[in-house]
Amino acid sequence: MFDILEEKVTLVENLEKPRQAYQSLDAVYIITPTYESINKVIEDRKNGPLYAGVHLFFTSRPDDRLLHMVDSSLPKEYMRQRHDLFIEFHAKEAHVYSFESPSSFFKLYSPADTEFDNELRIIAKKLLSVCISMGENPLIRYQRSLDSDHATKALPYKLAMLVQNELDSYVRLNPGFPPQDSPRPRGILFIVDRTIDMYAPFLHEFTYQAMANDLLPIENGHKYEYNYTGEDGTQATKEAILDESDKIWVEIRHKHMKDCIDKLMKDFNEFLTDNQGFAEKDKAVNLNDMKKMLATLPQFQNMKEKFSVHLNIAQECMSLFERERLAETATMEQNCATGHTADGAHPKTLVEDMVPLLDNPVVSSLNKTRMLMLYIMYKNGILEEDRRKLLAHARITLEENDALNNLTLFGIKLLRASKNIKKNKKYRQKPSDDIQYEISRYIPRLKLVIESHINGQIDHTAYPYTKDPTGDPDGSKGTQQGPVSLRSARAGWYKKGQAVENRVGRIIVFVAGGVTYSELRSAYEISENEKLKKDVVIGSTHIITPQQFVDDLKVLRTRGYAQPPVQPQFQQPQLQQPQLQSPPPQLPPRQGLPPKPDNAPNYYIQPQPQSQQQQQNRYYPGGPGGYGQQQSTPPLPPPQQGYSSGGYGGYQQGYSPSGYPQGQPSYQTQAQTPYGYGIPPNQPNQQYANLQKPSSAGSSSSTSSSKPKSKLFEKFGKY
């Protein structure tokens, strides 16, 4: 808004609100190319008109139907000009763009959503805006899923072809695009989806930006509220914006938290040294000393505010790190994601390391869910018996169990039928000598793919082109010399006023379904690597945190984004109605019919008594995917709050483990699929007793002899 006012614009108004007429002035409309926005502009002329004339600027090119609507409704003398800006995206950072569309995740991956094809067309137009704004007509490479088998495996291919058609159409209508005086060769656009790396969204990251967004309530990645001490010693709350106007944030956001704290301490002590009045003994040696000294510096308000923000963030993150035992959790996660321990050995004690964390009440249910997901992905599916025992230890909620089940929509295998089944080749990272911290060993797979492309070692079968690159797959030929075009030489939203380097091509990356902060950091690391000499710009439909990704997975199959919860289609059990203390009132007789005789059956049906066994097996629904408390205490141990659906037995006939009637196809299918985590409605209650402790070699089992038996817990019987 400040930049607009600097251009001497006197008034900025919302199109959807009532506005005052200024019939002597022209109005500039910056609108999205939708029917609703264009109709508002047309109504402004019919009801007045409100302005002397209009200048229409669309964020992207409207389709032919909307253009005809504009031309037929607005006279040429009234419409002064019309332009397409191609700015249908948000420039979040120097190398990061986003469409700010979390709903795209559900439209692309939910099996119940019907907006898949339309959403791909919308995303293709937005990607066209990104390419045009950067002055690029790139070669397009897309992810081709060779091994995985899931419903949306063709997503990258379909999106890549749509983007290619959009670029071809724009180039055909604009022969001068891209500018021929660019010093860069032709760029590359990588189109991948979230299945390229399913480890990254669940891992704990300990770089400053990623860790803060994972553990702290930072709104939309940049708005943070913190407590600070005022000049009079009182505590107050203040809001800080974490963006690239804060030089401290830019310098430390991709550093490991330990390195970040060291740099904050170093910079703060350097400030004390540069300013007179501070003795050598006044230097801060830890974060608490730094916080106390900041309260005594009222004369340095600007510096005080910046250091206070990052001091609070660092302190809060380290407090949660110690309180939730994230060091042990992260070690377990890294062993699963990389496939090896810190010393490069094969991890043989994953269960022994994981079960104490699953039993520990200090570890949050969210972290237990993330740990289970990483372990199952590492094992490429586990036995049903092992699955139920792990869930008995973890005690995750039913909604979190639904999130785990929905991993199958991304090609993740949850269960396997036999322990002796032939194992598929699983993705494993090679140990790297550049890793400094044991709890930060995992390298996002997207970074490895981009580096392999730069080094010419990429698998062309797994990442093919939409068009023949004509013998120049890496874009290293055809470098043109000439005057520098600012639009084509750099992205228009960053490095303002800086000289443009003649790098060897630009790489634009798009991740459909959300991009993680670790992947954003990887783009910066490649761009800042002088050996690679590549400029990487990365973006997605939205930026995700582990909490947000798990929350989205919970409802991915059931209801989708921003829709009302699906209510179970059943009648409330009659036993919950109180017994009538007096006879019900007699209803008036219908006209023309004789009155009801006294000995006729009552109009109200009294609840029928049930046996003790029937009452023990009955649970009342407690909302979508949940259950309430049992009405009577059964002889078996009662299910505790938070147990997954795999730990319940004795469901009422006709209900699935997710709490919905079996008449609904999606839930019935989930209960019967070999990849789901639900158990059939007729599962006996004896299964619950098996969850309390692992069965020994000499104990009897309720499973059939043909069912594979697990030895996962034989060496860990004390849990």
What does this structure look like?
Among the domains are: 1-85, Rossmann fold (3-Layer(aba) Sandwich), CATH 3.40.50.2060; 88-197 and 444-469 and 504-561, Sec1/Munc18 (SM) protein, domain 2 (Rossmann fold, 3-Layer(aba) Sandwich), CATH 3.40.50; 208-324, Sec1/Munc18 (SM) protein, domain 3a (Syntaxin Binding Protein 1, Chain A, domain 2, Alpha-Beta Complex); 325-410, Serine Threonine Protein Phosphatase 5, Tetratricopeptide repeat. The protein has helices at 2-6, 35-46, 64-73, 103-109, 116-133, 155-173, 208-215, 247-252, 257-274, 287-294, 301-323, 326-338, 350-359, 365-379, 384-394, 398-405, 445-454, 486-489, 517-527, 546-554, 612-616, 665-672, 686-690, and strands at residues 22-31, 51-58, 79-84, 90-93, 96-98, 139-142, 188-193, 223-229, 235-241, 506-512, 535-540. The chain is built from 23 helices and eleven strands. Mean pLDDT is 77; it is low at 473-503, 561-582, 589-593, 601-607, 615-707 and 715-719. Strand 2 (51-58), helix 3 and strand 3 (79-84) form a beta-alpha-beta unit. The chain has 719 residues and is α/β, with parallel strands linked by helices. The strands form three sheets. A six-stranded mixed beta sheet has the order 4-5-11-10-7-6, with helices on both faces. It is 34% helix and 9% strand.
Spatial separation of the terminal alpha carbons: 60 Å
Tell me roughly what share of residues is in helical segments. 25-40%
Instruction: State the shape.
Output: globular
Number of helices: 23
CATH topology group of the domain at 88-197 and 444-469 and 504-561: Rossmann fold
Instruction: Report the structural category.
Output: alpha/beta
Detail the poorly predicted runs: 473-503, 561-582, 589-593, 601-607, 615-707, 715-719
Tell me the total number of β-strands: 11
Broad CATH class of the domain at 88-197 and 444-469 and 504-561: Alpha Beta
Organism: Rhizophagus irregularis (strain DAOM 197198w)
Biased composition (Low complexity): 568-580, 601-621, 653-668, 693-707
Protein name: Sec1p
InterPro entries: Sec-1-like_dom1 (IPR043154), Sec-1-like_dom3a (IPR043127), Sec1-like (IPR001619), Sec1-like_dom2 (IPR027482), Sec1-like_sf (IPR036045)
